[in-house]
Write a structure and sequence with these properties.
510 residues, 2 domains, nine-stranded mixed β-sheet, two-stranded parallel sheet, 17 helices
């Protein structure tokens, strides 16, 4: 497809809910910027050859109510959206809605991806709506703590309902235009929930890698990463997992008595003398591996196969613990060789300072807003307190949740109740929804909070596609020659479901 080069870009824009580690955030930002640059170059090439795909894309703003549940409050904010009419078969063609998640949307969200391929095949109008409080969809003072009360998934779903009405009026749509929603990761959950809460507005929903079950202590994330490191189908092995476990144990032990040596070995900007900075270091080292597993074979940093090659490359000259530590140092050096930063910043104080930034420009970074949503709705804290965790046990639930009272005045004791409310409101991984397709990869740690098995009870159904050897949201990209056969087959299955829904809707209108 014309925009195959943007597959990693879209992947990174979708998937930013992967933990608090600063290194992981930087990995995503770096790849996103690189892919944006490549895409702009590609667009210039096709514009020069008289192929101008961007001319079909229109950007707009809709003024949404800040609080949909308080009718007397008339405050609004401008919400960004994109429309692509290039493939639409007027007037009765379907509408494919790409739901924005915890980050900015771009025009490429209606120009590239599997949902765009399907829109071309089915004559659909393409839409993308940015999530409130992210990207450009925010008021100048919107990130102040007192204003973040209007940031929630419930408000986001209400935004989608209002946007549905706005687009229907703008394009003179009727019941003959079948709406299908698409999303990945958090926006995949929104896709499923939009269908569940507003079934009269959206006929079917595709939810890729969607963590619909909120979880306070998401220790299963690290455990799942460990299983992926052992998965021989993607280059893992038991030896690889053992090497990672030994390396982190050695690094933690050495830091307890020689923090200066550890700081020098890993190229840190500071010596991690206090506990908070030591946790930052351990989290950032783990992020290199977490990011690799979650985005395996999607062009992000390395692959599982490449990481395991480093972590199992033993020499006979060193003792086992020292050798494992040195391999982790080597892995860190490989990562930093692609970084423009002179050193690894592990200052916890600076992390907190950045998260307290409420200025407008910080809206495009998304960390503050997403941290707020983890504190108020979802949890998703990737802890390492279990004995099965292959990383550092210093990353605890206490260390992960202490930001809630510091940043937002939200008590840690209130978090379990907030998580329980989310699951009660949406139904967790057992919601009785109809025509929602859950797509998950076997290498993806987030599958643990999604729906991975078909369920049919009393007329309700959960339809699933499980891709045993792919990672997070891999199905959402346009196909490429190097894709695994399982991924190619999964996209065909998704297409069958979507086409089936469109035919079913047409028959119901007769």
């Amino acid at each position: 497809m014309l925009f195959s080069l943007v597959r990693c870009l879209i992947l990174l824009l979708l998937l930013t809910l992967t933990g608090a580690g600063r290194t992981l955030m930087k990995i995503k930002e770096r790849v996103r910027n690189l892919q944006l640059q490549k895409t702009k170059q590609l667009l210039l090439t096709h514009t020069a050859s008289s192929r101008q795909p961007l001319r079909h894309v229109k950007e707009g703003r809709i003024h949404q109510q800040l609080d949909h549940f308080k009718r007397k409050d008339v405050s609004t904010f401008p919400q960004k959206f994109f429309v692509n009419e290039a493939h639409w078969q007027r007037p009765d063609g379907p509408v494919f809605l790409f739901i924005g998640g915890e980050g900015p949307i771009y025009e490429f969200d209606v120009l590239a991806g599997h949902h765009v391929d399907m829109a071309e095949e089915n004559g659909a109008l393409l839409l993308a709506l940015e999530h409130r409080f992210y990207g450009d969809s925010i008021n100048p003072d919107g990130l102040k703590t007192e204003n973040l009360a209007d940031l929630s998934s419930q408000q986001a779903l209400a935004d989608l309902a209002v946007f549905h009405q706005y687009i229907s009026q703008s394009f003179n749509l009727s019941h003959r235009n079948t709406w299908i929603s698409f999303g990945g990761s958090y926006s995949g959950s929104l896709s499923a929930w939009f269908r569940g809460k507003f079934p009269h507005l959206v006929y079917g929903a595709v939810a890729s890698s969607a963590p619909v079950m909120a979880k306070l202590d998401f220790s299963a994330y690290s455990d799942s990463v460990g299983l992926s490191l052992m998965n021989e189908a993607v280059g893992g092995s038991e030896k690889c997992l053992a090497g990672v476990r030994e390396a982190f144990a050695a690094a933690e032990a050495l830091m307890s008595w020689n923090a200066s040596r550890v700081a020098r070995d890993f190229g840190c900007c500071q010596i991690p003398k206090d506990l908070d900075d030591q946790i930052e270091l351990m989290q950032n080292l783990a992020d290199i591996i977490l990011g690799t597993v979650q985005y395996n074979e999607e062009g992000v940093l390395m692959s599982i196969d490449e990481i395991c090659a480093v972590m199992t490359n033993k020499s006979e000259a060193c003792e086992e613990e020292v050798e494992a530590y040195n391999r982790l140092v080597k892995l860190s050096q490989i990562y930093h060789s692609t970084s423009e930063e002179p050193c690894l910043d592990i200052s916890h104080e600076k992390t907190v300072k950045n998260l307290m930034d409420t200025s407008v420009h910080s809206g495009r970074r998304a960390e503050r807003q997403w941290t707020y949503q983890t504190c108020t709705e979802f949890g998703f804290y990737q802890t390492c307190e279990d004995a099965t965790c292959p990383f550092s046990g210093m990353v605890t639930l206490q260390s992960q949740t202490e930001l809630c009272p510091i940043l937002f005045g939200i008590s840690q004791h209130s978090l379990p109740g907030r998580i329980a409310f989310t699951n009660n409101y949406y139904g967790g991984d057992n919601a009785h929804t109809h025509r929602v397709l859950f797509v998950n990869g076997g290498v993806d740690p987030w599958r643990k909070l999604s729906v991975v098995q078909d369920r049919t009870e009393e007329g309700d159904e959960a339809q699933t596609i499980f891709i045993k050897d792919t990672a997070h949201c891999a199905d959402m990209m346009s196909g490429r020659v190097t894709d695994r056969s399982s991924l190619k087959k999964a996209r065909q299955e998704i297409e069958k479901h979507v086409v089936g829904w469109l035919k079913m809707a047409a028959q119901e209108r007769v």
